[in-house]
Amino acid sequence: MKASTMKKKLVLSLLLMLLLPLLASCVERQVYIVYFGEHRGKKTFNEIEETHHSYLFSVKESEEEAKSSLLYSYKNSINGFAAVLTRHEASKLSELEEVVSVFRSKPGKYSLQTTRSWEFVGLEEGEKSKKLKKDDFWFKARYGKEVIVGLLDSGVWPESKSFSDEGMGPIPKSWRGICQNGDAFNSSNCNRKLIGARYYLKGYEQYYGPLNTSLDYKSPRDMDGHGTHTSSTVGGRTVPNASALGGFARGTASGGAPLAHLAMYKVCWAIPGQGKEDGNTCFAEDMLAAIDDAIGDGVHVISISIGTSQPTPYPKDGIAIGALHAIRNNIVVACSAGNSGPAPSTLSNPAPWIITVGASSVDRAFFAPLVLGNGMKIEGQTVTPYELKKKMYPLVYAAHVVAPKVPKNYIAGQCLPGSLSPKKARGKIVFCMRGNGTRVGKGEEVKRAGGVGFILGNSPDNGAELAADAHVLPATAVNSDNAIKILKYINFTKEPMAYIVPARTVLHSKPAPFMAAFTSKGPNTITPDILKPDITAPGLNILAAWSEASSPTKLASDHRVVKYNILSGTSMSCPHVAAAAALLKAIHPTWSSAAIRSALITSAGLKNNMGMPITDASGNPANPFQYGSGHFRPTKAADPGLVYDASYTDYLLLLCSSGLPNFDPSFKCPKLSPTTTTNNLNYPSLAISKLNGTVTVERTVTNVGDGKSVYFSSVKPPLGFSIKVSPPILFFSHMGEKKSFTITVKAESDGVGTVGKNGYRFGWFTWTDGVHIVRSPMAVSLA
Ligand SMILES: *[C@@H]1O[C@H](CO)[C@@H](O)[C@H](O)[C@H]1NC(C)=O
Ligand SMILES: *[C@@H]1O[C@H](CO)[C@@H](O)[C@H](O)[C@H]1NC(C)=O
Ligand SMILES: *[C@@H]1O[C@H](CO)[C@@H](O)[C@H](O)[C@H]1NC(C)=O
Ligand SMILES: *[C@@H]1O[C@H](CO)[C@@H](O)[C@H](O)[C@H]1NC(C)=O
Ligand SMILES: *[C@@H]1O[C@H](CO)[C@@H](O)[C@H](O)[C@H]1NC(C)=O
Ligand SMILES: *[C@@H]1O[C@H](CO)[C@@H](O)[C@H](O)[C@H]1NC(C)=O
């Protein structure tokens, strides 16, 4: 072959290699969501579906093809559909004026937000619920009676005692939902507690093919455990003497709103070919269908412990779109902030109409100290029920006992699957570092290699946060300082030895709360002028009900069955706040979702149980990019004094000024003056990104306390900035009265020197009448 022909051939094949994937992606049929905003005018469901069909027919070859490509036609509030389209068809539809956005549904984009670790336990909430019962607030809120909370999750285990309807009030007359039949589930599984249950699978099956029913139930029934956990956290009944394997934390189990009604919308499913401990997937088109139904069914609060690992612009974020429609229907929406911390800018669900919830610890620990051969005692935590015989065992670092052939990308010392040599690990306690892989999976690997026990060491990123896991062998987990101590001991000792003391439950541990290292952090990269997260709530080692079709670790090799289990994640903190919102809704049925959110935000606490500022997992002071306005205090939120209200239109105006496409094509953005900024959404906190000189923003507060009152402002300015609140005093003569004020933020002359470029500084502004403290966090950065 001549060199020139060879060259030509090479060029041709190179071209083909480059073009083929391009061509393939043009023809490749994917699920797209085509979103039109709100439904306008009165239309029947048939008329809506017909309209959606006609859009599809306009880009498809035939009527049949148009019909068969449609997965969902959203009809209650969301105007849009999900369909199988080529990229070309999708782009044609996106050119239509009435279309707000067209976006591809990406598999694996959304998942439930636990930190891939769990275990079982009896009950942590015992103490709390005793206190709550006496509490006037829960009484006033009638424990959430008549409020309906919908959850998007992995399903529910209806037989759990947490979902008993004994003594519950009747199903509210306003309820229009259903109890959908399916595998091992029918309407008999619903009752006056669990009043609705549906499942959404079309997007999942379009991508993965028919559901493998040994992985999950084709019904609202939960084969994972997560949905059972979150829904019992919101509204589980008071269950005395609940406990689990090992009897950890025996006590009374109770959800935050034990008399609220629950509705499960199952949208998250097992991923074929992947262990359940490694996660699950939830498709945007399935979630939109669920939210649209929840709106039509008549829920009052929606709790969504689902998110992305990356921030997503709102017009392409199924949860943000669905939540805006929920807000328009006066439904409160709480979402998890994500578990991608401690890196900054890692938030999911930062939309201004959502309550974005971070995660922090509770004051309960499971002490299982480690004793080293030199007599040193090291703190550790676990909830494994397995115990060592009381004697010292040889201790090794995983990196020193690796198998001969380990995949190159395996990081030494992390006990990834297949990495340990049984020859070297047998009979020993193995020390493993956190990093890649699941925590329980590391224990499984040590057990496989014949280790008798294992120690899980935190990396510096994990700090002092210890997630208590139900490991499959004797184990304990240690913080990063102690991990280094243990490594030193191993490195500098001839025959290192250790013993793990069996775990016991300890209450009133200090400090609590502290921020979980995994909780996702601000700033909000989608709308930087909205401070997120909003608030923090318990999300570390939370005990709640569990599916009996799953094991406490979710490992396939683990066959234990438990009724209650401990999980960690913003998935666990979100339902706490959803429960608080349900209680507030019961006390103040006429309040808007923005008013409820404002009450929660401005009443949050900043101190731990040692009377000191809340810290991060390493003991450093935490800031509003971790906890928003602080730790939620539902009792205080019931009587906030003032609220920052906002309407659906206010959110549309925010979208106008943020330059994002508007969600409602019928809404015409007003002409924006150059001074219009996204800061002016009447939000109960304030973020100013890239301040150049001075900015003045306006806020309006509504008096929700009794009648006559005088509120004084006070300010703790961010370092390097001056803050002026005007007027500094607000006089109210009656309940419901609104007063506006401005906040002027000015960079001080040496501001750049103090703050630096891109750095954020935090401060607070507060209104108080001597009884109520209405506190708002602020975050400011310089241009
Ligand atoms: C639901 O399923 C159970 C168990 O299979 C059955 O006994 C019951 O009759 C069913 N109920 C309805 C309403 O179909
Ligand atoms: C379904 O899942 C089970 C368990 O993972 C697996 O053994 C089986 O091969 C799967 N079936 C199909 C048809 O993929
Ligand atoms: C609680 O349950 C355990 C068994 O799970 C039982 O031994 C104990 O007596 C129970 N305690 C009460 C107060 O009912
Ligand atoms: C996890 O593994 C990837 C690649 O295998 C590596 O780049 C990354 O640093 C690892 N992360 C940790 C925390 O060890
Ligand atoms: C102990 O030795 C391992 C390598 O075997 C090394 O990675 C680690 O940094 C050492 N640690 C200390 C504290 O000496
Ligand atoms: C700040 O504002 C001044 C005056 O309006 C302008 O000249 C300057 O370019 C701005 N700087 C930045 C970084 O935007």
TrEMBL record:
What domain of life does the native source organism fall in?
A: Eukaryota
| Gene3D superfamilies linked | 2.60.40.2310, 3.50.30.30, Peptidase S8 propeptide/proteinase inhibitor I9, Peptidase S8/S53 domain
Q: Which residues does the UniProt record annotate as the domain PA? A: 415-483
Q: Does the keyword S-adenosyl-L-methionine apply?
A: no
Q: Which stretches are annotated as coiled coil?
A: none
UniProt GO BP: proteolysis
The cross-references to CDD domains, in alphabetical order and at most eight, read: PA_subtilisin_like (cd02120), Peptidases_S8_3 (cd04852)
Q: Which parts of the chain span the membrane according to its record?
A: none
Q: Locate the Inhibitor I9 domain: which residues?
A: 31-107
* Signal peptide residues on this chain, from the entry's feature table: 1-26
- The active-site annotation reads D153 (charge relay system), H226 (charge relay system), S571 (charge relay system)
Where does the record place the Subtilisin-like protease fibronectin type-III domain?
Answer: 680-780
Please provide the record's keywords in A-Z order: Hydrolase, Protease, Serine protease, Signal
Domain (Peptidase S8/S53): residue spans on this chain: 144-630
InterPro entries, alphabetized: PA_domain, Peptidase_S8/S53_dom, Peptidase_S8/S53_dom_sf, Peptidase_S8_Ser-AS, Peptidase_S8_subtilisin-rel, Peptidases_S8_3, S8pro/Inhibitor_I9, S8pro/Inhibitor_I9_sf
Q: Which GO terms describe its molecular function?
A: serine-type endopeptidase activity
Q: What is this protein called?
A: Subtilisin-like protease SBT5.6
Q: Which organism is it from?
A: Camellia sinensis (Tea plant)
Which family is this sequence assigned to? Answer: Belongs to the peptidase S8 family.
